[in-house]
What we know:
Layout (H helix, E strand, L loop, with lengths): L1 H19 L3 H25 L2 H10 L6 H29 L10 H13 L1 H16 L3 H24 L9 H23 L2 H6 L10 H33 L3 H37 L3 H28 L1 H6 L8 H34 L3 H25 L4 H25 L5 H8 L2
Amino acid sequence: xxxxxxxxxxxxxxxxxxxxxxxxxxxxxxxxxxxxxxxxxxxxxxxxxxxxxxxxxxxxxxxxxxxxxxxxxxxxxxxxxxxxxxxxxxxxxxxxxxxxxxxxxxxxxxxxxxxxxxxxxxxxxxxxxxxxxxxxxxxxxxxxxxxxxxxxxxxxxxxxxxxxxxxxxxxxxxxxxxxxxxxxxxxxxxxxxxxxxxxxxxxxxxxxxxxxxxxxxxxxxxxxxxxxxxxxxxxxxxxxxxxxxxxxxxxxxxxxxxxxxxxxxxxxxxxxxxxxxxxxxxxxxxxxxxxxxxxxxxxxxxxxxxxxxxxxxxxxxxxxxxxxxxxxxxxxxxxxxxxxxxxxxxxxxxxxxxxxxxxxxxxxxxxxxxxxxxxxxxxxxxxxxxxxxxxxxxxxxxxxxxxxxxxxxxxxxxxxxxxxxxxxxxxxxxxxxxxxx
Length: 437
């Protein structure tokens, strides 16, 4: 799962590196449009991706025939989401001119956003299938499929952005189109394995194409808090990002560069978090909390070791890492000053990210999604209120805003660690309620 999520990080990283060969405005626009697209899909992504924990719980309990039924319920949810995604896409697309961004940035952001939203349904299906295979422990499948996707995406994106090998020169739209085309390949590979005879017979796949009210109730009861948390947190982050980009192209591009390097830490650890959630869900279903404790210890050792080493490297080579995205326009002289300072903040919160991701993986796998929703959402919105005064009302320096963001992540990591340590989530009666349909 670390390799799988790392492949996604490499894909996004290379997309933005290609766009940096055009100018800094394209880099900032890809950041704004990409985050807006994720925000628009986040409610449904948060809900559908909870298929991972559900499948793992059924798998651990030995209820194999229930596992593919989770996929069917996820597809039903994705189909029902289509009208809402269309309305959200139209509304958000019309909002870009009113966000105070540089006039050069707005049409690029909007074009990138609309293209990604056109493929939103396929994104949800891909997430549902990936969550299923992780839930049954076939993580090698997810890794192989994601690597195949990136092997198509990177060269295709290069040809579409710059108009190579007979392809039209589409610029930022080409970056989004490359992502969508790669999704078709990924979905096709997942379905090939899903309907393979051996897998089909073992999990009774052909009997799963029904609306299973019991599975759907569990999906909605446990997944909705996770979905709302994802949506609300993405909303706060998106609003913060948009407010921060209101400082100008220099600040927006600096943030895009820093978050590009952040992905090399955060996204692979998301894979580790998914693995932790899967194993915790399996051992909750099997009522084996001793093994669950081993998962927690192993998860923290791996995450803190990885993020700690990377934070040290980022701190030492922060200037050189920013120079990787150097552009030939006038903006980069100022970016060269601001972005390395923001990299120090990144190094500060990377260990906090590790704690958040492992702790949240444990709590989600155990079904403690309501507590996560209330705690994380409250702290994110508190940060947003502080950012409103720092950026809009008091017009303080961008670095002040950045350190407020860092402080929020440190606070969330502390809250998650305390929840995990106190252990209310592991009480037998609570776990029994989680497994009820």
